[in-house]
Design a protein that fits this description.
Layout lengths: L2 E7 L11 H4 L4 H14 L2 E7 L3 H14 L3 E4 L8 H7 L6 E5 L21 E4 L3 H18 L25
Parallel strand pairs: 1-2, 1-3, 3-4, 4-5
Helix pairs in contact: 2-5, 3-4
Length: 172
């Protein structure tokens, strides 16, 4: 069975390729989305990629994922540093969650060093550009596989048939 995964992206990520290419790279958001989908196919995942600049919309997507027990790769972008509402919504998750960033926030401005999301995620992948998303999807595939119950039901043992006594045997 193919596992559904949401790849959620926060503010300004729809501007990839235009916004600070020296920091975020020259690939467009559409190229990122296609890379995520193709990586997912190779991993046996069905990946849906979304982007919003609206915190309310991001929260509704996180609630949707929690209700559906759907794994999430999340680049919260600027929400990373201050959105306690997002952090609290993510704390209700029911499936694996990997935080991802194109750049390495710890190597950037001081205000970017804090993630309110990290404490409720299974892990964080940062600083590898588009490869960060591929690594995050690999982690999701592994975590989801570990969480899945065995696919094939165990065969029920049938009770042993009652043995008829051999002629001449006496029952105890």
């Amino acid at each position: 069975m193919i596992k559904q995964v949401l790849v959620l992206n926060g503010p300004n990520l729809g501007r990839l390729g235009i916004r600070e290419p020296e920091v975020y790279g020259s690939a467009s958001f559409d190229e990122l989305a296609e890379l995520c989908r193709s990586t997912g196919r190779k991993l046996g995942l069905s990946v849906e990629v979304r982007q919003t600049d609206d915190e309310r919309e991001m929260l509704s997507w996180v609630h949707e994922a929690a209700d559906a027990r759907m794994p999430v790769v999340l680049n919260p972008a600027a929400f990373t540093h201050y959105s306690y509402a997002l952090r609290d919504a993510l704390a209700m998750r029911t499936a694996p969650l990997v935080e991802v960033h194109l750049s390495n926030p710890a190597a950037r401005e001081k205000f970017r060093h804090t993630s309110v999301v990290a404490a409720v995620a299974d892990g964080t992948v940062t600083g590898f550009g588009l490869v960060s998303y591929q690594l995050a999807l690999q982690a999701i595939a592994e975590l989801a596989a570990e969480a899945e119950p065995e696919q094939a039901p165990r065969p029920e043992l049938e009770p042993e048939p009652e043995l008829e006594p051999e002629p001449g045997d006496t029952a105890p």
